[in-house]
Amino acid sequence: MQYLRPSNLHEAIRLKNETGYTLLAGGTDIYPGLENGTRPAGLIDISGLPELSGPVRSDEYWWTIPAMTTWSALANMTLPRQFDVVKEAAAKIGGRQIQNKGTIGGNICNASPAADGVTALMALDSRVTVVGREGSREMTLESFVLGNRHTSLKKDEILLSIGVPAAQHRHSSVFKKLGSRRYLVISLVMVGVYVALDDVRQLSRVGICVGSCGPRSVRLKAAEERLLGMQLDEAAEFSLKPQELAPLSPISDIRATASFRLAMARTLVDEGIRDVVGSLIDD
């Protein structure tokens, strides 16, 4: 197995295009695969590229998270409450060692149906910026993750950063995860919920995302649309309708049945909405 370590982003793009080798960031998904017999032909180590690192930055409209940002770094940052959903996910991704080495970009590009970070970030209407030989392009995270281990990255492209729209008014968010234990576990079901208010205390932005209930995380857009425009008191009584779970397609496996996952998704969404709405009522 070849190991390549480019010195800059331009070289990394060239090597990825020429070799098709696997990118190595934190390595928290690659190394377990090696132990299980999944051996790539080569690795391109991008962990030292300054273009993919640096502080989380913001302007009036966007927060930008470099792809090599680790979960520990993000969890320890002082950020607005809209990022609670991501920070709570970060605290539940593996153990401390995984959180110290695992990167947000790697979690997204690995595109696991149980990727906690994808569910949390998708609830915030996040976008990604990728860069390749022909320059950079931007797309929603929802359109970037296409399915199980499948993204819209082209052969020569590398994920550069994640963008999150800045909240303009009062807001709250929460992450809910169900597993066989509290930590060090792959999610059976996970939910990210984000709510923002307008000047008259109506819900003006809503994000509800569910993971581990299909080949990728999905937004429950019918439920989001029903919540938009509600007053806080009305939203506090919200409960998902069965048809609003239609985008989910859970499977039965050794960890849980499809029917259990579906029931728990509904429970976690309802709990998440009550939590975020309750926190805004109490402000």
What's a quick, concise take on this entry?
The protein has helices at residues 9-19, 30-35, 71-75, 84-90, 96-101, 104-110, 116-122, 141-144, 221-227, 232-235, 258-282; strands at 2-4, 22-24, 42-45, 57-58, 62-66, 127-132, 135-140, 145-147, 150-151, 158-165, 171-178, 189-197, 203-211, 218-219. By secondary structure, the protein is an alpha+beta fold.
Distance between the termini: 56 Å
Structural category is alpha+beta
Largest sheet: 5 strands, antiparallel
Inertia-based shape:
globular
Overall pLDDT score: 93
Describe this protein's structure.
The structure is a single chain. The chain has 283 residues and is α+β, with helices and mostly antiparallel strands. Among the domains are: 1-46, Uridine Diphospho-n-acetylenolpyruvylglucosamine Reductase, domain 2; 171-282, Enolase-like, domain 1, CATH 3.30.390. It is 31% helix and 25% strand. The chain is built from 11 helices and 14 strands. The protein has helices at 9-19, 30-35, 71-75, 84-90, 96-101, 104-110, 116-122, 141-144, 221-227, 232-235, 258-282; strands spanning 2-4, 22-24, 42-45, 57-58, 62-66, 127-132, 135-140, 145-147, 150-151, 158-165, 171-178, 189-197, 203-211, 218-219. The strands form 4 sheets. Strands 4-5-10-6-7 form a 5-stranded antiparallel sheet. Strands 11-12-13-14 form a 4-stranded antiparallel sheet, with helices on both faces. A 3-stranded parallel sheet has the order 1-3-2, covered by helices on one side. Strand 6 (127-132) and strand 7 form a beta hairpin. The model has no long low-confidence stretch (mean pLDDT 93).
